[in-house]
Model the fold of this input.
Amino acid sequence: MKEDIYSAEEAKHLKVGIYAACVIALIASLYVMNKDSMAHKKDGEYYTVDARFNRTDGLLVGDQVRLAGVDIGRVINAKLDDHFKAILTLDIQENIKIPDDSSASIVSTGLMGKKYIEIEPGGSMDYIPQGGEFAYTQDAMVLEELMDRIISIGKANRKTDKK
Done:
């Protein structure tokens, strides 16, 4: 005969504890997933500017926009124009005024790291207005293209050394 390990009351308390732990885990996971978007909305008011790129490999909607390494916004939309260039719409904190001769570059946190947009401020006294666009942009560097360039330079140097 098999004996029950738990009494009816202990089994009831165990079930309630398991349900409570599941609810807490669900709430915690939802909080972690929405933390970035909640922080973005709490930071204050934003204005939008566009940046046009030939390629945005690895950059996604929701990725960060930085100025001098400090987060100042997010990518909120991506679409193609009539010439198949990517137009990214950026949400920038309202208190950050970007000179209209600034540039936007797609960079990564490391060799295989997450991509973000880094803004290099210009020296103009005029600023990019709400709904304006960056005049200068630099596309994402694709790792495979970089490796091909390095290999071709190495081959060219090897040929000149043999002569």
Notes: The chain has a mean pLDDT of 84. Residues 8-42 form the longest helix (35 residues). DSSP finds two helices and seven strands in the chain. The first strand starts at residue 46 and ends at 53.
